[in-house]
Design brief:
Arc Repressor Mutant, subunit A; four-stranded antiparallel sheet; 3 domains; 5 helices; alpha+beta; Immunoglobulin-like; globular; 8 strands
């Protein structure tokens, strides 16, 4: 596919995600050697994709190993050893006494490991759900970034964060990316907004550096806003916007 000089810049996201065919990739790679803006965009998109991919990796819960070791340490799995030289009668007594002890230990072990297995199963289910959610978010963001009609605009928030919005009219979706976003104060959160002819509508949240899919009808919106709101969000902005950026046309 051939691209005019005026629209080849929109391929930055697709190039960063390896979504171009060989001919387009070669053409855009040649363009990168002379276009500093596109090199900056590609670096931003690659960093964002890496952060989103890392979000799907799930480490085992920190408490799993200590709890497992603690349970094992308190389970007696073998009966006491009987010296070979012990009289037959003594061995019989010890065997009869050891049998209930071993049985009790086995029951304790079974109950302990059953509880541990149930806890681990619940933890694994929660990890799997978070992983699937992260994968769905990554897929949605990647689809917008690689859209043929994707358009990009950059901005800077009042708190110094660098921001990027990539929008696709064909998909009626947009992605908001932030870098250098300061941590919000306790009890506060960053909330996104879509402006529709001056009316601000909630459009989701961003809690740290990275990319999020903007919620809402972006095709009919004219700007994206960012405010600091109470935890849980607000139906309408309660503070002055840190950012009000016109959506790319």
């Amino acid at each position: 596919m051939n691209h005019h000089a005026s629209d080849i810049h929109v391929l930055a996201a697709a190039y960063a995600l390896n979504a171009l065919d060989p001919g387009e990739r070669e053409e855009f790679a040649a363009h990168l050697t002379a276009c500093e803006a596109c090199r900056h965009d590609v670096a931003d998109f690659q960093a964002t994709a890496a952060r989103l991919a890392a979000a799907t990796a799930q480490a085992p819960p920190a408490a799993m190993k200590p709890r497992t070791m603690a349970d094992i340490d308190h389970v007696r799995q073998l009966p006491p050893r009987v010296p070979a030289a012990a009289p037959t009668a003594l061995r019989g007594v010890l065997r009869r006494k050891a049998l209930p002890v071993a049985l009790a230990a086995s029951l304790v072990a079974a109950a302990s490991f059953a509880g541990l297995a149930a806890w681990q199963h619940q933890e694994n289910r929660q990890l799997e759900q978070r992983a699937r959610q992260s994968e769905r978010q990554l897929d949605a963001v990647s689809t917008v970034l690689a859209a043929p009609d994707a358009r990009t605009v950059h901005g800077r928030a009042g708190n110094g964060a660098f921001t990027t919005v990539v929008a696709s009219d064909r998909q009626n979706k947009a992605v908001f990316t932030a870098a250098g976003l300061p941590a919000p104060a306790a009890g506060k959160t960053y909330q996104l907004w879509l402006s529709h002819d001056g009316t601000m509508r909630p459009a989701g949240f961003i809690h740290q550096d990275g990319s999020v899919l903007i919620n809402g009808d972006t095709a009919d919106a004219d700007a994206v806003g960012l405010t600091l709101e109470p935890a849980g969000g607000s139906p309408q902005p309660t503070t002055n916007p840190l950012l009000l950026m016109t959506l790319p046309a």
